[in-house]
């Protein structure tokens, strides 16, 4: 094996004086007026440049997920880490490291469900009903729906509207959108208090409609949320606080262990 074969990549072509991404010279990408971060995320993960409407739709999803305040565990962790004297990169990494199946992974899970539904030859309502029944039988919730904080997630409507418009413009097929809306309809049948689609559900529609693999859906959300982690870490670094925990120092956790006792 030649030493140059140790790391092989189709993504970046780097040599003295040359930087190309999937063959495109970086100087041309920098100068192109329609190339932004969403375009670059698409290019590096997919190998080709998106169309302008595709990039704009992706951009909407990335914008929507950047932050949800210190009540989001990942953002709170970024702020706490910053008061421990670490670098801003450590605080950002601490935040993204907790974006797992429970906090930040629902979009990927829903994209996997979309893939299952769209491969099923049965009529859409029947397929969706079967998938919801399976999740309930396994004592699982339907990912991408419901929010512990918002009665109606304010990000749902503009994102769904953007996908709807993209379907009308021929940018996306709209099959994932139809599946998502059918899931939303069925899980809310007969309910006095609706279970709204949340940010994970709305962005999962966009990522899936644009053809991203489910695992990339999670990666794109993490990419988006890292901007919020950066902003909050920076803000907290200017507070002068040190060693901040999850609660104010005047609030102590409830102790539920044994009563005071002597060592025998």
Automatic annotation (TrEMBL):
<dbReference type="InterPro" id="IPR002020">
    <property type="entry name" value="Citrate_synthase"/>
</dbReference>
<protein>
    <recommendedName>
        <fullName>citrate synthase (unknown stereospecificity)</fullName>
        <ecNumber>2.3.3.16</ecNumber>
    </recommendedName>
</protein>
<dbReference type="GO" id="GO:0005829">
    <property type="term" value="C:cytosol"/>
</dbReference>
<keyword id="KW-0456">Lyase</keyword>
<comment type="similarity">
    <text>Belongs to the citrate synthase family.</text>
</comment>
<dbReference type="GO" id="GO:0005975">
    <property type="term" value="P:carbohydrate metabolic process"/>
</dbReference>
<dbReference type="InterPro" id="IPR016142">
    <property type="entry name" value="Citrate_synth-like_lrg_a-sub"/>
</dbReference>
<keyword id="KW-0808">Transferase</keyword>
<dbReference type="InterPro" id="IPR016143">
    <property type="entry name" value="Citrate_synth-like_sm_a-sub"/>
</dbReference>
<feature type="region of interest" description="Disordered">
    <location>
        <begin position="238"/>
        <end position="264"/>
    </location>
</feature>
<dbReference type="GO" id="GO:0006099">
    <property type="term" value="P:tricarboxylic acid cycle"/>
</dbReference>
<dbReference type="InterPro" id="IPR036969">
    <property type="entry name" value="Citrate_synthase_sf"/>
</dbReference>
<dbReference type="GO" id="GO:0036440">
    <property type="term" value="F:citrate synthase activity"/>
</dbReference>
<dbReference type="Pfam" id="PF00285">
    <property type="entry name" value="Citrate_synt"/>
</dbReference>
<comment type="pathway">
    <text>Carbohydrate metabolism; tricarboxylic acid cycle.</text>
</comment>
<dbReference type="GO" id="GO:0016829">
    <property type="term" value="F:lyase activity"/>
</dbReference>
């Amino acid at each position: 094996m030649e030493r140059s074969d140790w790391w092989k990549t189709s993504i970046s072509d780097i040599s003295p004086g040359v930087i190309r991404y999937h063959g495109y010279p970086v100087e041309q990408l920098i100068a192109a007026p329609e190339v932004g971060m969403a375009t670059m995320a698409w290019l590096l993960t997919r190998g080709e440049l998106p169309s302008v409407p595709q990039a704009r739709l992706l951009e909407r999803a990335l914008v929507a997920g950047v932050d949800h305040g210190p009540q989001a565990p990942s953002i709170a962790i970024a702020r706490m880490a910053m008061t421990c004297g670490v670098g801003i990169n450590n605080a950002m990494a601490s935040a993204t490291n907790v974006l797992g199946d429970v906090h930040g992974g629902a979009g990927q899970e829903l994209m996997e469900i979309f893939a299952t539904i769209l491969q099923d030859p049965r009529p859409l309502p029947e397929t969706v009903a079967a998938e919801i029944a399976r999740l309930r039988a396994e004592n699982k919730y339907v990912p991408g729906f419901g929010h512990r904080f918002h009665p109606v997630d304010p990000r749902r409507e503009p994102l769904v509207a953007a996908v709807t418009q993209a379907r009308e413009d021929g940018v996306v097929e709209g099959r994932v959108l139809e599946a998502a809306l059918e899931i939303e309809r069925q899980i809310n049948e007969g309910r006095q208090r609706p279970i709204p689609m949340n940010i994970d559900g709305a962005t999962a529609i966009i990522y899936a409609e644009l053809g991203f693999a489910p695992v990339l859906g999670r990666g794109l959300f993490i990419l988006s949320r890292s901007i919020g982690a950066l902003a909050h870490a920076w803000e907290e670094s200017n507070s002068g606080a040190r060693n901040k925990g999850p609660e104010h120092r005047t609030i102590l956790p409830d102790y539920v262990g044994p009563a005071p006792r002597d060592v025998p």
